Hints:
Elements: E1 2-6, E2 11-21, E3 24-35, E4 44-45, E5 49-53, E6 57-61, E7 64-67, E8 72-81, E9 84-95, E10 98-109, E11 117-127, E12 133-141, H1 146-149, E13 157-168, E14 171-182, E15 195-205, E16 212-223, E17 243-258, E18 264-279, E19 287-300, E20 303-307, E21 310-323, E22 360-372, E23 378-383
Antiparallel strand pairs: 1-2, 2-3, 4-7, 5-6, 6-8, 7-8, 8-9, 9-10, 10-11, 11-12, 12-13, 13-14, 14-15, 15-16, 16-17, 17-18, 18-19, 19-21, 20-21, 21-22, 22-23
Amino acid sequence: RRVIHDQEEKQLYFDDARMEVMGVPIFWLPRMRLPDPDQTRVTGFLIPSIKRNSQLATGLKVPDFITLGDHRDVLLTPYVSAKTRTLEWRYRQAFAKGRIEFAGAVSRDDLRPSLTRAYIEGKGHFRLPRDFQLDFPLQAVNDPAYLTDYDYSEADRLESGITVSRIRRDEYISAGLAHYRTLRLNEDTDTIPSIIADAAYERRFFPKWGGEVRLSAENHSHLRYSDTLVDGTDDDTLSDGLDLSRLTVGAHWLNAWTLPAGIRAEGRIGVDIDSFRTVQDPGFPTSESGATPSAALTLRWPWVRHRNGVSEVVEPVAMLAWSGGSPLNVANDESTRVEFDEGNLLTLSRFPAPDRRERGGQLALGVNWTRIDPEGWDARLTFG
Length: 384
């Protein structure tokens, strides 16, 4: 019947508001207020939603958005059904040099009548002096089934931690501490690596004689809560209390040349030194160290064709490599999942961590095919 547009407060007021679908009235309100379309953040209710869940029955969610100034806000969402009373929440805040966001929920339901179920997750990012940055994730829950019962997350392991890093053109620095809690039925948080500490440094130099020199150092440690010296009922063959620390340093020289006929040659030579300390597993020595010298030559021969606006590139590749040294008697606690794909076809070792290394001679062959269409799409195939 009447609409008032308050341009100073940026609000729209409706008297006798009627909602219609294809001319058919379906809803009526005597009074209704909506924010001006130019408003991007304003306190008020958001669009309600109906949630259907076979365990929790059909329920209604009514989100309420609350602004706390220009840099903070809270979202409160009551969720009510015949089997649950839940309050979902989210808090966000922006700072001059960073931001944080936390979310969670608290429930009383018929699935666990004697327990108040709750979870929280968060993340933050801050810029520190000298180009460093700080990042942290946070995840916690008091009932392992809560996240899946309410469709909040499919995560089967929860991660919390903090990382400080800096990335520059010729330098990378990172240090972090993480904690993992498993929600898997066949795992126990006490017997998996739960506390992880990592630090890494890499620096590139470009000497006058040509090429590139890379120096790197990495320290990794993981701890288990358990002190048991024997293997239990888990899937691995390690003791349930095994703790491990690893220090890896490396030095490599790389260079590339363009040969006749457009053949591209890439060479590298270097050495990596690994030192391990293993405790609480009598099946492995306490200390174990070794060096892995390596050399590799890679040849690429890209062929390019342009026809009717379409560009095609066919690139045969080949790598001849060698890695020396002897296998170390250390636990396979990091390289438990090995994959072979186009990303590691031309690497010296396809293990994801240096607790295992490929050694000896190897030959890798492959071909890349790329098609770039003028209509904006492209395709790529790799055989190796």
